[in-house]
Fold this protein.
Amino acid sequence: MARFGGPAVQAQDLTLHEQLRYGIRTLDIRCRHTNGVCAIHHGPYFQNAFLGDVLNEITNFLSIYTTEAVLMRIKEEANVQNDPGLEETIASKFSDPY
């Protein structure tokens, strides 16, 4: 997801959709967790996406390609507001209640 921020930060040229279509199945997702929002960051650089965007893209992909799997590591890049942990936010916003 590190597509923005210049040459010192940029690790990808492809969108998440393109990466999935070209066969990438392992993702390194880094969130800056502020006020209950999980913005995708690489260092101090916002990557123009939020965790919900990433999860929606992966869910859509997997609904079409039902035999595929995606491995994802979600890491807290920075917690600038000293909010509750990233794990708590993910559990409260994205957990399937069933």
In short: Helices lie at 16-21, 51-64, 86-94. The mean pLDDT is 86.
